[in-house]
Amino acid sequence: MTPGLGPGDRAPELVLPDQHDDPVRLSELVADRHALLVFFPFAFSPICTGELLEIQLNIDEFVNDRVQVVGVSCDPRHALRAWAASEGYRFPLLSDFWPHGAASRAYGVFDEDSGMAIRGTFLVDPTMTVRWSLVNPRGEQRPIGLLHEAVRSI
């Protein structure tokens, strides 16, 4: 695994299907706002569900005219669609399923041994520059307060 991207790095372009099989292009998403990319290991897992539910509970801070939250995992889109429907997520969940983990690798958060993304979070601005990042070790939950601070800093 290569180290995750840091502030000032150019954000790699992403073009991935969301849970409804609609293609999402990062450069189009950030044309007029920032994106908070939230890479996570697996839909329906306890830590991932807790993290994304916490983001959902604070959605008005994270999804507005300045920021759009986007979840990314190596799960197939069908699993992401079922999970989003089950939990009521109101933000896109992108499938990095095929080619397996290509986006996660580009952001330096793909775990080759397990075949999953680790918990990497990247705030990308309209110039496709990473403004803030956090990569948590496997099994360690993201502190939601740090995401709040990052979003407030823009």
TrEMBL record:
The keyword Nucleotide-binding does not apply. One of its GO terms (biological process) is hydrogen peroxide catabolic process. The keyword Oxidoreductase applies. Residues 5-154 form the Thioredoxin domain. GO terms for molecular function: thioredoxin peroxidase activity. PROSITE patterns: THIOREDOXIN_2 (PS51352). Pfam families: AhpC-TSA. GO terms for cellular component: cytosol. Keywords: Oxidoreductase. The active site is at residue 48. Belongs to the peroxiredoxin family. AhpC/Prx1 subfamily. Thiol-specific peroxidase that catalyzes the reduction of hydrogen peroxide and organic hydroperoxides to water and alcohols, respectively. Plays a role in cell protection against oxidative stress by detoxifying peroxides. This is Peroxiredoxin. It comes from Ornithinimicrobium tianjinense.
